[in-house]
Amino acid sequence: MKPKPAVLEISSQAEKPPEKWGSGLEFLFSCISLSVGLGNIWRFPYIAFQNGGGTFVIPYLIALLVIGRPVYYLEIALGQFSGRGVVKAFDMAPILKGVAAGQVLATAASITYYSSIMALTLRFLLASFGAELPWSRCWESWGSDCHDVGSNLTSVGKMSPAQLYFEREVLHEVPNIHNGLGMPNWQLVACLAVAWLIIGGVLIRGIKSSGKVAYFLGVFPYVVLIILLIRALTLPGAMDGIVYFFKPQWRELFNPLVWYAAVTQVFFSLAICFGTLITYASYNNFNRNVYNDIVIITTMDSCSSIIAGCITFGILGNLARETGVSDIGSVVKGGAGLAFISYPEAIAKFEFVPQASAAPWAWAPASCASSGINSDLVRRPFGSWPLAWPFLASA
Fold first, then answer.
1. Is 17 among the domain residues?
2. Is 36 annotated as a binding residue?
3. Cα separations (Å) of 327 from 122, 216, 244, 324?
4. At what angle do helices 207-233 and 238-246 cross, to 10 degrees?
5. Is 374 annotated as a binding residue?
6. pTM: predicted TM-score of the whole model, two decimal places
7. Calpha distance 247→231 (Å, rounded)
């Protein structure tokens, strides 16, 4: 039998040219806005607070240089060489397809809580436009638990208005759930919906729109960080908190949990191993030299974390002096809500109109959005927009 002649099938649809960044600066600022976000302003301070302040900074900087920067370079190189999203980039090693799938799931998980935190910052932003900042004074409903700065009464064992406002008026925390979880708070639900609308609006045109937004998202956080840092440094007792932040407890350096927390923080802070960097680099020109970009990005990321830590611990030092607490590590309850206590406390110290203090909370949603938006902004192998789930786009 004669072999069948080979037939060359030509697709009726012309293949679209691959998308590219408008300029090298768009790639640089997009990576900065991705890395400098929640991992720095929200997660780093409370992780450092939980692990002894200065004790945590040393292993964090070591992990950044030994693990963070090389892995960052590896992901950028992989994406730029393959020119594909995270799932298809691993076609060169099919056995690693599971790694790509895991990165998609990690991005899907992270974008859900990023959006929730963005909703909290929007809630604070709206509250900032009132006639007075609601966390600048004690409410009658809080009883004797609140420490009023202008009061001559003893403040030992009391909590700041910012902490009580966050726990009782924003989160509506209850001592127990014997009476059930209750209904969702409509204000937070509305803010969460707005957060998703913001993310969708920026992503609607892919990198054509998000690349331009990155100029704002990459610069504005630093403007507000510097403003908050200056204000925090001028508060009484701030230097005590900053000394606590940088002074290590040498015995804790032998605690493996501190090193584990430092390595985990590096992954969150730089957004490595989430697949987003691979996709970002896939929009680069093949011959682009990204080494200088990576040095700039990782350096700015670590500096942002240190600045955010100075702001938080400076405010904690001020709270310790006002409440009469000698141990800065016990002045407030640690945990994920630490940033929502320290930053409002700094904003309340400004001697301006409340509308002026809304600027830092405008930065907070922008920073959260940069993390969430950039986690979403990736190629979409699961279907065309808007049928595909946004958070699955990271593949």
1. no
2. yes
3. 32, 39, 10, 9
4. 120
5. no
6. 0.77
7. 22
